Amino acid sequence: MVREEVLETFVRVSREAGGNPSSIHRAGRHAQAVLENAREEVSEILRCSARDILFTSGATEANNLGILGLARAAERLQGKPLLLLSSRAEHPAALAPLRLLQQQGFPLRLVDIDRHAIADVDAMLEHQSSADASLSVVQWANNETGAVQPIGAIAHSCNANHLWHCDAVQGFGKLALDPSLWRATTLSLSGHKFGAPKGIGVLRLSPDAMLDPVQVGGGQQRSLRSGTESPALAASFAHALRLALEEQSGDAERLLKSRVYFLEEIQKLGLPFHCNHSDENGLPNTMNLSFPGLDGRMLIPACDADGLEISAGAACSSGAALPSSVLVAAGLDPEVARASLRISLSPDLQDSELREAAKRLGKLLRRLYEVAKR
Ligand code: PLP
Fold it and tell me: What number of CA atoms fall less than 13 Å from residue 247's CA on the CB side?
């Protein structure tokens, strides 16, 4: 959901700075100034210079630009493809560009993940040490189980030859800022994950990042991301990011309490279930629960029919009947993975709404287990 005060920023800036930021007339110059203010504000938060902030349409584009851009520039400069390293915990928006590069001749190694979807970073570092040049793609936190990845080790190993793209989408506003993030060669963020409108993301570059553009055209944003920028979306992104970081620790505390309450309510039902998320090392808003024995194909439609907005895996693929590839890679039987729910709690959820949601889910699960017994 777009935050109310951010929506106001979006509407105000759309009205006041409606010119094209690349135009040299007065309206264009005003739009340009607003856009650059937003870039400056984001760069201060992300501890970099404003020129290293690229606005994109979201994190899918930012991941594509970071991964394809770094890999292709390295190949162009070094005359051979570098080694790509990652894991199956990554979002499709990171895995798909990696697969594309693999088809184009780049070697790709995907390391194992544990039962909470934490990548085997030691194995990744071992592969890395045997290569002259590599690009590791390691997210900050996983969107399905909420697992926080050991990015400190990757940050430590990152240098001019061993690059790191970090999909940091899930962490901003939910986790305390980790200084390791600032070591990433490229870092992607998505505005709609912290209260900005959909359609705006950022790719943060390290000062020495060598990147080929993926999208070419009018040469905006240092020719690294051509296309007319939206000052209103950029200003909304900056505003939402600032608010999300200001409120992060209070939100995290509230979300953890809500999660404990929710899980206790599910436990009280006495039905078989297990948690795929980690309590100690995870996003405070994310629960991932498996209900062995239930027909997973009925679970999501039944939640929807009961007004519960719950998904099975990445939101973009939750309409699919396939089990989550992350849970299967984490070792779950495909049928159990299919009978799993990813529940994201919103910090705005009122206690009464939380109680009602837990009650409704409990009733629904009882009903489905009754059907399964027949
Ligand atoms: N990466 C992760 C970890 C995500 O959770 C998402 C979206 O949910 C994306 C990338 C894609 O972001 P966007 O929707 O901004 O394209």
Answer: 16
Active site residue 275: no
Ligand 1 binding site (Cβ under 6 Å of any ligand atom): 58-60, 63, 91, 93, 139, 143, 167, 169-170, 190, 201, 315
Task: Yes or no: say if 67 and 97 are a contact pair by the CB < 8 Å rule.
Answer: yes
Do 146 and 170 touch, CB atoms closer than 8 A? Answer: yes
pTM (predicted TM-score): 0.95
Q: Which atom of ligand 1 is nearest to the CA of 58?
A: 15
Q: What are the two backbone dihedrals, phi and then psi, of residue 109, each rounded to the nearest 5 degrees?
A: -120, 125
For residue 142, give the ligand 1 atom closest to its CA: 3
Q: How many CB atoms lie within 10 A of CB 235?
A: 27
Q: For strands 186-190 and 274-275, give the pairing.
A: unpaired
Instruction: Give me ligand 1 centre to Cα 169, in Å.
Output: 6
Mean pLDDT of the chain: 94
Task: Kindly tell me if the per-residue pLDDT of 319 is higher than 90.
Answer: no
At 148-196, the pLDDT tens digits run: 999 999 999 999 999 999 999 999 999 999 999 999 999 999 999 999 9
- Nearest-CA residue for ligand 1 atom 5 is 143
Choose one of 143, 187, 285 to mutate for the ligand 1 pocket test, by most ligand atoms within 8 angstroms of C-beta: 143
DSSP letter for 148, please.
B
Q: What angle do CA 229, 13, 174 make, to 5 degrees?
A: 80
